[in-house]
Write the structure tokens for this entry.
Amino acid sequence: MFRPSTSLLFRPMPVLNKLKIHQPLPLSPRESEQLLNLLTTSFRHNLDTEHPSFGTADHGSRMTRPSAKPRRRSFSDFDGHHTDRHMHSLLSNPLFTPPTRNRIIGRDPMEIFDLAVAQGMMDTNHAKACLNAKRHRIIQSSVLSVRDGMRDSGAGMKVLRWLTSSGTSNDNQFLKDQDFAEILVAYMVAEGLQEHAWRWIKRSFKDVSAVALLPFGAASKTARREVAGPLRALVKSEMSQNRSFDAAYMCISRAAGYLKRVSSAEMTTALQPAGMLILNRTCMPTNFAPHPTPSEVTFESFVSLVPIISPRKYNRYLAHLALLHPTKPDPGLALDYLQNIESSVDSDKLWALQPKDKKASVIQLGLDAAKVLLEQGRHSDMEWTMEFLSKNFPQQLGLNQRRQLEQVKAEASSIELLESIGIA
């Protein structure tokens, strides 16, 4: 076979030099329109050849008459040709519609979320902004329950699907943003998606042994937050909207079940942040909205874990929880705790050095003890308790605490009056 040499291929050819080759001239507007019509007709013809039209005989009768009023074209107007349907679906896509300022302001936050996901622009920070904006709209709306509004929005499931499809939820790195974790889990709880949160909780517990051995410091604090943060976010959401604490108590018990094979120190690392949140909400009700009485079983299961949750202060918490038992309130431990404080040397100086939150917790313990003692008819113990509070915390008793103390005194005086005339 003849093969031309390299020199032959690149040899100058005089014949070509005589030819005058011009650059193509630009088309006129009319020629451009004709070319576009030709291409459109050719494309439509070839597509209709592959996919014949499926319009019915009466399709032509639905066409707009010359005398009819003009109307907007609907999707059904394009049923005759696949080409028209295809082009209509493309041009009607929101991605091809330039957003205006007014449309962006009035658009639902989760619509913006969908558009950002479609364009590959979504991250956890933007997702957090969308979820918060959606919750703000729900609060400003006419819904009777914010929780129901969050449930009906489906925003939690939408974000959860994005986390899964994008691979973001393959590890717990996205939960390092505590604010994002809390708002997302709040939606998930409202929508009944708690089991997805439990997967993250169990995954976070895998590092508890190593984290519990870290010396206390900034790095240790961050690592402990990453281990305990998912459980705390779930517990916080379960206690929201003035619900019963049963679900929160059960969360702590379930989490403890996953930690049966670890040491008590490791269990404290995992349970303490969520457990302390429950203890503060349970024992300091004046700071939060009232909630329904929990069941006896869930309450007692949580009480059994208090020594693990708070190893240093469990005596005070157990004394307070005994007063708050849903069916059998017992003031015995609370009286013992207060009497031990009273009998300590220089108790006045000792309490002067205590932090404000500890003073507030002891005051609330004394008020709850006085109420239970009054209900049980133990008037002498009740009077001692009120005297203890007035003596040791004269400045710390706030307006609400003073009102509670006066209410207990008034009820006690009424009972004594009734007893004196033989009615009580």
